[in-house]
Amino acid sequence: MGMIRIIPLSCALILLSASAQAEWTLNLTPGVTEVSRSVYDLHMTIFWICVAIGCVVFGVMFWSIFHHRKSRGAKAHHFHEHTAVEVMWTLIPLGILVAMAVPATATLVDMYDPRDAKLDVQVTGYQWKWRYQYLDQELDFFSNLTTPREQISNTENKGEHYLLEVDRHLVLPTDTKIRFLLTANDVIHSWWVPALAVKKDAIPGFINEAWTQIDEPGLYRGQCAELCGKDHGFMPIVVEAVPPDQFEQWVAGMKAEKQAQQQASERTWTLDELMAQGEQVYLSSCAACHQANGAGLPPAFPALKGSAIAVGDVQAHIDIVLHGKPGTAMQAFAEQLSPAELAAVITYERNAWGNSTGEAVSPAQVSRVLAGEGAAEEGM
Amino acid sequence: MSSPTILRRWWNTLLGVLAGFLGVQSEARRERDFKEGRALHFVVVGVLMAAVFVIFVILLVRWALQLAGA
User: Domain holding A323: CATH number?
Assistant: First the structure.
């Protein structure tokens, strides 16, 4: 008797725990754009057609099995062909497919029509981050994962937006047709934001087009959808849709920030300032491969702790950080970071984890290399 | 059994090819095709019908794009 009472109770508990995971859902999101809603409607229409076909087919099958069962003395009727039935079960599915193709084609044609876009954003996939360039606004930045390493290695509890949070959002105006130009710098990535119903491959050497027009302000999160290497799951996308006037303010703010960065690379930095800034840059841009403790993951990602480059010739160190190393996973960071950030991270690498060169690399030193003034004059 | 006219023979070949496109054919027609038909006729009509099908698909896509205003 006791057992019988426990069963409904445990069922109720299972249901309760299921409803506790409020965010958890099986179905596609209707999203926040006209295209995403029509994709959702299409998906539901086809889903219900499949349900209806399933009911009819399995209904007839189960009814036949039950009605013509052996215990009732049913005898199988042997015949070789029935042309009329065969033609019917070929033509009816054909008709259903054509009927489904009509709304599907309309949605696809709409998705592939980026004409009359008011804003162009180039999206470039990198291992493992996204770069956004607003072509008319002349804005250009990288968007890096901000989930703390401690959460990834399970030494801290995971946050609400675990692996779906970045330092710089892709800020977009609402009610504006936006065209995305997608490409990649190294391997094939895929830029996917479910709420916008945009999922497009980003392929090196190709430019793919996609577009969106967001109706509601909000934060929409997405991920890379093409396996692109070690940190494929660690390069999320965060779209921040804001009203157009707020977007203008944001653009102005970004331009001011760019100017501030310019000034930062012109002033003199102390070793402590460089170390503090350098640690932050290191954790967001370098630690994925070279690890937070500088030990790397040899042989693909060498250690920086005690490495010949990090404690050797400073010019060689600047050169490899700025220009990368062809044929290896080491990227060129010249475009990804500002001169001040580059100087800070190089300084950090030369003085952290027992690499005690005591040398401070100045932003001006980095700027000179960037401007092509060459390593020759600079010397040691 | 009188042999069918030339026109009749081509017509039967065409029906055989169309049945092949659909994937359904009655046993009686299949036997007749094998008895009366010529392999070369089936190849010629088959290639022609494939071309017609491709042209039909091209026109269908053009028409759909025109409807969408592209």
Answer: 1.10.760.10
